[in-house]
Amino acid sequence: QVQLVQSGPEMQKPGASVRVSCKASGYTFTGYYIHWVRQAPEQGLEWIGWINPENGGLKFAQKFQASVTMTRDTTINTVFMELSRLKSDDTAIYYCARVNTPLQAGPWGPFDSWGQGTLVTVSA
Amino acid sequence: QSVLTQPPSASGTPGQRVTISCSGSNSNIGSNSVNWYRQFPGTAPELLIYTNNQRHSGVPDRFSGSRSGTSATLTISGLQSDDEADYYCVAWDDSLNAYLFGLGTMVTVL
Questions:
Q1: Which residues does B contribute to its contact with A (CB < 8 Å)?
Q2: CA angle, B89 as apex, B86 and B94 as ends, to 5°?
Q3: Which end of chain B has fewer CB within 10 Å, C or N?
Q4: Which residues pair with A95 in a beta bridge?
C-alpha cells in the first residue's frame, strides 16, 4: 500500500536551516506529485508547495519562495524539503502528501496519502 | 483573501445532521474543485471528499459534499461519536497560485 514515512523531529535555532525527508513506498515514485503542508501548534493547515518527482519541477507558495527548497532522490524514492533562515513562527508539524492522480494530470489533485508529520521546533 | 472561511465549530447529538460551510471567492472555490479533509488530534489529515462531492475510498456515505458558486458544504448525516475531529476545506486559488485551506471546523458530538 502507499506509504510516506518522514524523518524524525528536529530542533533548530533561529537563523538555521532544517531538512525534512519523506520516503515513499508502495507505488511508482516518479508517477505522482508530492506536496508539503505545515501546521503550527493549535493552528490550521498551510500549503507550502509541490515537487514533481520525475523532473524535479517545483512550485512554492509566495511566502515560502525565499526560504524553501525541495529536492528528490529517485534512487531512494525520497523527497526532501529544506527550510532556511528559520524563525520561531516556523515551529510546526510538516507533512508531505501525495496527489492521487497520475503525474500527467497535473499537481492539483487531492492528497490521498500523507506522511506521519515531522515536528520542527525553532527556539533559541 | 488568503484563507477560506469556515465556522470554528459545529456540534450535534448522535444521529443528527451537521453541515460545515466553506466560503471563498471566484478565484478559488468559484473556479476550482474543493476537497475536504478530516484530522483527529495528533494525526495527519485524511482525505474525505474530493472534487466537490466525490467520497474517497472507504468513506461512509454519511459524508457528502457540495459546491455552489463560491461556497462549498460538507454534510455529516447520522452523526457518530467518532466523527469528533477537525474538518478542513481546501481549493486552489488562481490569483494567488496556491492552495488555500480553510481554518478548520471542530466538530463536537454532544
A1: 3, 32-33, 35, 37, 44-47, 50-51, 56, 88, 90, 92, 96-104
A2: 155
A3: C
A4: A37
Q: Do A111 and B45 touch (CB under 8 A)?
A: yes
Q: Which residue of B has its CA nearest to A36?
A: B99
Provide φ and ψ at A47, rounded to 5°. -80, 135
Find where cell 448522535 sits. Answer: B14
Q: Do B50 and A109 touch (CB under 8 A)?
A: yes
Residue-wise pLDDT tens for chain A (124 aa)?
Answer: 999 999 999 999 999 999 999 999 999 999 999 999 999 999 999 999 999 999 999 999 999 999 999 999 999 999 999 999 999 999 999 999 999 999 989 899 999 999 999 999 999 9
